[in-house]
Write a structure and sequence with these properties.
alpha/beta, Rossmann fold, 6-stranded mixed β-sheet, 4-stranded antiparallel β-sheet, 9 helices, 12 strands, 26% strand
Length: 265
């Protein structure tokens, strides 16, 4: 297991204003760090920096203490796997074909083979309950089945760290819980963006909240999921209670009253 960290990081897409501002953040080896924030807060932009899809305008991204720019593409792919929000194009590939792409970094340039790759793919399909779908065309799957396929691809990559951008989006409640329980029991460092406060509190060791591209809170769920922060960042009132069965926090929210704009005279 390895640490993931950023130091003094800012990021601006080409030709656009900054969307991340001077952020320093670290996920310890084996930790699940949840990234929370409203739409447009910068969560996806932050996570993309960890798997090399974007480059910071300032600051450093480190994987296992090494600057990401000092790692080759194949070495980085052996350390960090990613499940982005967007799905790949619906090429005429089967579920198994998609999951096998997670093994690309392990294919020998000399032999053209990936020893152990077939077992890794089989295991990933089994763990995500996709064995019966393995020969289905990816384009025929539901949104939830596609998400599980992409998670299986990341597991087949067999890395020490995982970057997951809303991985349970489109999943029904059963599969949400199964996937997050699986992630919690992996021997991996995980950065995961979520929208559900209760799931974040239950499955994450620590949480970080982004707002307008700034890191505004970081700490344990008890430190971060407090009414004042939720009101200021998400614009809703919240009551925090303790789940008697599991001992984790639950966040009960209600909308703030809408104040109509003053009528122009």
């Amino acid at each position: 297991m390895i640490a993931l960290s950023i130091e003094g990081l800012s990021f601006a897409p080409t030709g656009a204003d900054e969307v991340l501002h001077n952020i320093s953040l670290r996920a310890e080896p084996g930790e699940i760090l949840g990234i929370l924030g409203p739409n447009g807060a910068g969560k996806s932009s932050l996570l993309r920096l960890f798997y090399g899809a974007s480059q910071p305008t300032r600051g450093v991204v480190k994987i296992g203490g090494t600057d990401i720019n000092q790692l080759s593409t194949s070495n980085r792919a052996r350390l960090v796997a990613a499940v982005p929000q967007e799905s790949p194009p619906d090429f005429h590939l089967t579920v198994r074909d998609i999951v096998e792409t997670g093994r690309t970094a392990y294919i020998s340039s000399l032999l053209g083979r990936d020893p152990g790759g077939s077992d890794a793919v089989d295991n990933a399909l089994k763990r995500l309950g996709l064995e019966a779908f393995s020969h289905r065309n990816y384009s025929t799957l539901s949104g939830g089945e596609k998400r599980r396929t992409l998670i299986a691809r990341a597991l087949a990559q067999d890395t020490q760290a995982l970057i997951l951008d809303e991985p349970v989006n489109h999943l029904d409640i059963r599969h949400k819980l199964e996937v997050l329980t699986l992630i919690r029991h992996l021997r991996s460092t995980v950065m995961i963006s979520l929208h559900d406060f209760d799931l974040a509190a239950h499955f994450c060791n620590r949480l970080a909240i982004l707002h307008h591209g700034y890191l505004v809170a970081e700490g344990t769920p008890e430190d971060v999921l407090v009414p004042e922060i939720i009101r200021d960042v998400f614009g809703v009132e919240a009551s925090i209670v303790r789940d008697e069965c599991h001992g984790t926090l639950r966040v009960i929210t209600e909308s703030l009253p809408i104040i109509p704009e003053a009528r122009k005279v």
